[in-house]
Amino acid sequence: MLIRTFRERWLNLARENGLLRFAVGVLCVTVALQGCHMKKLSERTTVHVHVPEYMRKDFSVGAAGTASLSYTEQWALSLLPFIASFTAETVDFNVRQFLLYVHPESYNPISGFLLEKSKEIKTSGVAQAFFPKTVAVEEEGDLVTVSGRRTRIVGNVVTDQREVSYRIRFELGALNRPLVTELTEDEGGGSPDEP
């Protein structure tokens, strides 16, 4: 009788141990799967997107530093007012804001061009407004050309009106930040008021 009771207890303990082993096994597998999932999450690529102020179209930015054409177009339209529309009082602020988006390797030539233009504007007291008409994105989105009418005013007198094109070349820098690598201003012809 003693052996039979001992044997029943032994079988009951063996069944309980089997259930405990099964529960521990399931927990180990769950922890291993959760660890694999967490590892995959930590290896995901993070894409930083700098959103332009002038955002009227959908755009996409890839992890490999590529962007859709509408991304650079909207950045050009967001930065252009800083260098194309100003008064003698606001030109310094506008130039400083634009230079925040200039590539370090292109900083000296672009800042030299803009500072020279700034001095000229402050000396003459010119106010300038630019009214864009067309936007063209070229070279896989690296180059944006915005054409329109530029009007210069001194006091209350319009001194110059002409068609102008601004060409802005972009490069996506660290963390997909758009940086200006080239800036040109092309004046098309003389003033339409001139004979």
Outline the structure in words.
The protein has 195 residues and is of the alpha+beta class. The protein has two domains: 1-44; 69-188, Roll (Nuclear Transport Factor 2, Chain: A). It contains four helices and four strands, in the order H-H-H-H-E-E-E-E. Strand 1 and strand 2 (143-154) form a beta hairpin. It starts with a helix and ends in a 7-residue tail after the last strand.
Summarize the structure.
With 195 residues, the chain is of the alpha+beta class. The protein has helices at residues 2-42, 69-84, 91-99, 107-124; strands at 126-138, 143-154, 157-172, 178-188.
Strand order of the largest sheet: 1-2-3-4
Span from first to last CA? Answer: 127 Å
CATH class of the largest domain: Alpha Beta
Roughly how many Å is the radius of gyration?
33 Å
Largest sheet: 4 strands, antiparallel
The amount of helix comes to: 40-55%
Q: What is the succession of H and E elements?
A: HHHHEEEE
Shape: rod-shaped
- Please tell me the CATH architecture of the largest domain by its name: Roll
Give the amount of beta strand, in percent. Answer: 25-35%
> Average pLDDT, to the nearest integer?
83
Q: In DSSP terms, counting alpha (H) and pi (I) runs of 4 or more, how many helices?
A: 4
Would you give the CATH topology of the largest domain?
Answer: Nuclear Transport Factor 2, Chain: A
Number of domains: 2
What's the CATH H-level superfamily name of the largest domain?
A: VirB8 protein
